[in-house]
Each structure stands twice: as structure tokens, then as C-alpha cells.
Amino acid sequence: MTADPLGIAEARTQLGTLVARAVHGHQPTTIRRSTTERAVLISEADYEELLSARRELEASRVAEAIAAHGRGEREMMTYDSKAALYADLDLPAPGKRS
Fold this sequence. Notes:
Layout: E1 6-7, H1 8-13, H2 15-25, E2 29-32, E3 38-41, H3 44-70, H4 82-88
Parallel strand pairs: 1-2
Antiparallel strand pairs: 2-3
């Protein structure tokens, strides 16, 4: 990543270069809007890889929960919401930070 996050205005002036670095060099860039609002510019390929890793993590946690139920170590649960299910499996809710 860049040593220091770039402000939006600075990132805007360098956007072509930053995109090229993300795509060709797989170098992410942190962009800040304020002290608390930040985003990271990464290549689409890197983003897809992160999504794939998240899906694999989710699948392995669900598979382990099913296996634990089969071994009698976990009882069958019903959930009122998707957020409750994700919390029980110690996964970040969809759309939330990991």
C-alpha cells in the first residue's frame, strides 16, 4: 500500500497511475475522505480473489458446523436473521468488514 493514505483530491489527480499500479503491479492504494472514512483501490482480479477467499472461509465454517452437528457436538439451530447466523458461525455479516 501507499505509505500514507492519499486524500481524495490527490488520488483523483493520480487516478490513472493508481489504477495501473493496482492492475499491473497488484499494489493497493488507501484513499481517505476523512480520518475515519477510508477505501482501498485494488485490481478487479485482487477483489475477486478476496471474494473467493471469503466464500471458502464461509463454506468451511458451515461445513464444520454441519460436521459438529453430525458428531452430536452442536445442536440444530434456527435463526431469526442472516446476521444472527453469521454471528453464530463467527463470520462477518455480508457487507461488513472482516
